[in-house]
Fold this protein.
Amino acid sequence: MDNERNQSVCRLRDLTDPCELCPRRCGAYRNEGQTGFCGIADSPLVSSAGPHFGEESVLVGSGGSGTIFFAGCNLGCVFCQNFDISHHRQGRPMSIDQLAAAMLGLQRYGCCNINLVTPTHVVAPIVAALELARGQGLTLPTVYNTGGYDSVETLKLLEGFIDIYMPDMKYSDPCVAEELSDAPDYPRVNREAVCEMHRQVGDLRTERGVASRGLLIRHLVLPENMAGSFEIIDFLAEQVSRRTTINVMDQYRPCYEAPCHRAISRRPTLEEIQSVRQYAVRRGLNVLAQ
């Protein structure tokens, strides 16, 4: 198994130069300092690393979720609430050794997991750091906290490194995905990615109320049903698992460039949010309590 993981680390490194890590396959030579859509070259930029108590309760436990926020993103969401990190790329460079040390520090602090936030574009150094940290005593579950725009080829190389997949499922309509995230293929790519994630880790499992392994879907309700919420729920119930755990998120607000887009220039109503949550319950999904 160690040899398989080492091969995955090497293959992921190869996929970054020219870069084919994510579905954009931009071809940037990142080891030479080039940047693609994500705006990041070979070294990850880390905005912050520390215990976070605002995540889902199944990730927080008593010690918090050990979040590491990576700058840059392979999506161009016009409503991004963390646009200073994702679009403006605020963060400091970290080497693989420093990243591994940060993970071990979160474990010593008492965090319940290592929560990798927006990892897709820097997954090569992340897995190298995970392998190093594990060799030095890291035992916490790892959370892949992603916007959901991930290629199956890359995800297959993460098998054995990731315990909990937590992807967004943002849209069911390609036209909306293009308008709001500059990713018209998002619905297809996202669904393929979620199926692969579930294949690897299955339904979410908890130990003493804290997630240990499995798939946890995040779905942000948008006004005017711009997200295509009901179609996403149908997909999960019919093609992934009736026991899928989903967080139907109600915290959308028009940030960044969202006020320029009429349909999402307001918050969703309570009725819009409740209709999605109730539909997910009717379809049998495991809907996290708010």
Remarks:
- Residues 43-287 form a domain with the TIM Barrel fold (CATH 3.20.20.70).
- Strands lie at 45-52, 65-70, 92-93, 114-117, 142-146, 164-167, 205-207, 210-220, 245-249, 286-287.
